[in-house]
Amino acid sequence: MTAAETETPETPLSAPLDVGFDYTRSVGPVLGRFVNALRERRVMGVRGDDGRVHVPPVEYDPDTARALTDFTDVADEGTVVSWSWVAEPLEGQPLQRPFAWALIRLDGADTCLLHAVDAGSPSKISTGMRVKARWADATVGHIRDIVCFTGVDAPPDDPAPAPPAPPVAEQAEGEPVRTVITPIHLHYLHSASPEESRYLRGLAEGRLLGQRCPACGKVYVPPRGACPTDGVPTTDEVELPDTGIVTTFCIVNVPFLGQRIKPPYVAAYILLDGADIAFLHLVLGCEASEVRMGMRVRAAWKPREEWSTTLENIAHFEPTGEPDAPYESFAHHL
Amino acid sequence: MGKQLAAVLGTGQTHHRAKRTDVSMPGLLREAVDRAMADARVDWPDIDAVVVGKAPDMFEGVMMPELFLADALGANGKPLLRVHTAGSVGGSTALVAASLVQAGVHRRVLTVAYEKQSESNAMWALSIVPPFQMPVGAGAGGYFAPHVRSYIRRSGAPEHVGAIVAAKDRRNGALNPFAHLRQADITVESVRASQMLWDPIRYDETCPSSDGACAMVLGDEAAGDAVEGGAAWIHATAMRTEPTTFAGRDQVNPQAGRDAAAALWREAGITDPLSQVDVAEIYVPFSWFEPMWLENLGFMPEGEGWKLTEAGETAIGGRLPVNPSGGVLSSNPIGASGMLRFSEAAKQVMGRAGDYQVDDARTALGHAYGGGSQYFSMWVVGSAKPGN
């Protein structure tokens, strides 16, 4: 069943929203020791104030909060303390075929490391099982230098394909790793409210639909469904013209990551005639230096065949050439 | 029973830099915490609870930071709370911590706020475009610049006032060993010659992106009495919130800020803030917010905040020194910026502000705002106990 089959004029619109960023983590002196040891295929822990060896090393003692510095090597082999089967691996997980997340107490450690065990099937992993690290062919200084763990007595006949090496931050040849990269990607389905959906479907027909609050009489575009001031539902639909004024604006000269309009551009609050709240849009059709507070503008629509359910159907606003609105007429909209 | 007395026992902060790649995120916090605890002369067993704050999760890609920071904050076995009010979070975090003492729940509370901006890109995080929207957003500068233009139009302020603020705050920052930007030679002219980023906001009128943290130890009356040289006593606190947008919203002089300030002065027994407050640490991420907040806070009548700035009265030695530490314009670890304002106010009345100490500072304001000028938090601290 597709969305198109079930969509009615009242169905809220939705669309994917993918957000992702490669965050950079400076590892600091403790985790730095850990990842740089991994690069040499060694696992390093740290001894706490109570004598326990923490693996991975903790920066501060869990009981005394003291900064810990007593590092010690542990084995790359240990015992499964507990585990959970992952039947359908997710994007970004260490193995892309069914595997177990396991808490593994490495020999010489007193705490558990969480890592993947490539066991093939849930019948081939158990608490108490002995496992050994499977190291990556090329280590870079990252937890994924250990591809996964496998059973010491019964390693899988067909080892899982090793994923590509994790991304690492730039570093000079031979220098220790100071920063690791942590890509995070979130995949949302963003849904508009019923009222906003009506407004967006109006835009697809070249119409600007707002709503009036029955209590204060203020006209909101886009409509909110409820008045933010009075808290009452707004049901009275108002069609607005595609003309209005610039209340205030700025000229964006600065480029930045993710920017979709090439600077410089004028980002302006546009107050449509008959509306009581302005929205941000672009102003073109004159020099940026000629844009003024109170300037009369009209929507410049994209060609009709490019319209969809978005305010981007209006390519920009442009001056009408009419006299500016007096400041007093829009001062309360600033 | 009313509020119990509460006081700042000690403060600490990191050296703020564009990139603190020498420390992990927990290590960054500990640098501030260790300094605050040393300043307060307390050890871990003295701390009853911990309150932590940071700016929005997308800024660093860390959700629920309180989970992985517990060890670094010595919070195992103690209450640990996280506060979240966008850019004002450093202020509101301090106020939540203060309320735990004022309520008589805890004797000493450690509070800390931080941001490690270099691990991400706040401009990107603030400009994510959801489906169906017009992609005109351009980070915090793009958001605030139109409202700065509205202020200039409404007040009739001369164009150079923003540059006066920027030059003053950066020169103040040069007196602060912890500041990110320390520009002793900056001038109004050089600020006005810097690149226009989001017209009417110039490069030198814009806060930096910093890695940094700030911490304070707050305590009850007995703990405050024991502070050598005197604690910073909390005289009043206020927080107010309003929606980002609604028809008729005053985006230049928001109601929530005015209401918070009125409540603050009333609680502190202050009837004439300009005469009765000796120094103010105000959240000024873009230069023009100094005159805007001077009005919003009631130091000056509406439309006249710029006159105090233009007359030089907000410089150290002026009638109301504003941001003698250098302020947000000199250091901006977003999540910590509000707490830095609160702690710098405390340092002033404790006489611990070093080269930027304001003479005879007895009453000080710490202020923070966040979101689309919609979260406000503030406190008044004094060298004397309230009522004395």
TrEMBL record, chain A:
<feature type="domain" description="ChsH2 C-terminal OB-fold">
    <location>
        <begin position="237"/>
        <end position="302"/>
    </location>
</feature>
<dbReference type="GO" id="GO:0003677">
    <property type="term" value="F:DNA binding"/>
</dbReference>
<dbReference type="InterPro" id="IPR002878">
    <property type="entry name" value="ChsH2_C"/>
</dbReference>
<dbReference type="InterPro" id="IPR012340">
    <property type="entry name" value="NA-bd_OB-fold"/>
</dbReference>
<dbReference type="InterPro" id="IPR022002">
    <property type="entry name" value="ChsH2_Znr"/>
</dbReference>
<feature type="domain" description="ChsH2 C-terminal OB-fold">
    <location>
        <begin position="73"/>
        <end position="135"/>
    </location>
</feature>
<keyword id="KW-0238">DNA-binding</keyword>
<dbReference type="InterPro" id="IPR052513">
    <property type="entry name" value="Thioester_dehydratase-like"/>
</dbReference>
<feature type="domain" description="ChsH2 rubredoxin-like zinc ribbon">
    <location>
        <begin position="202"/>
        <end position="233"/>
    </location>
</feature>
<dbReference type="Pfam" id="PF01796">
    <property type="entry name" value="OB_ChsH2_C"/>
</dbReference>
<protein>
    <submittedName>
        <fullName>DNA-binding protein</fullName>
    </submittedName>
</protein>
<dbReference type="Pfam" id="PF12172">
    <property type="entry name" value="zf-ChsH2"/>
</dbReference>
Automatic annotation (TrEMBL), chain B:
<dbReference type="InterPro" id="IPR016039">
    <property type="entry name" value="Thiolase-like"/>
</dbReference>
<protein>
    <submittedName>
        <fullName>Acetyl-CoA acetyltransferase</fullName>
    </submittedName>
</protein>
<dbReference type="Pfam" id="PF22691">
    <property type="entry name" value="Thiolase_C_1"/>
</dbReference>
<dbReference type="GO" id="GO:0016747">
    <property type="term" value="F:acyltransferase activity, transferring groups other than amino-acyl groups"/>
</dbReference>
<dbReference type="InterPro" id="IPR002155">
    <property type="entry name" value="Thiolase"/>
</dbReference>
<feature type="domain" description="Thiolase C-terminal">
    <location>
        <begin position="249"/>
        <end position="375"/>
    </location>
</feature>
<dbReference type="InterPro" id="IPR055140">
    <property type="entry name" value="Thiolase_C_2"/>
</dbReference>
<keyword id="KW-0808">Transferase</keyword>
